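Appendix B, record 7
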Amino acid sequence: MNLKTQLLVSLIITTIGILLMIFMIISESEPGAIPLLIIIFGAGWYFITKLKIRSGKT
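Structure tokens (predicted):
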């Protein structure tokens, strides 16, 4: 998977986590652990990929 695809996938995962968190807050009045972990995973993957792009690694 190339780096631009990884950026797109990580942003999609982060967006899904945010939407799931919004849904959980509306339905259960608390965010829950799984949406938080999805957001952390997606954001972490995004920033690691950005660092790889900046350093010129493939």
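Remarks on this record: Residues 20 and 35 are 6 Å apart (CA to CA). The longest helix spans residues 3-28.
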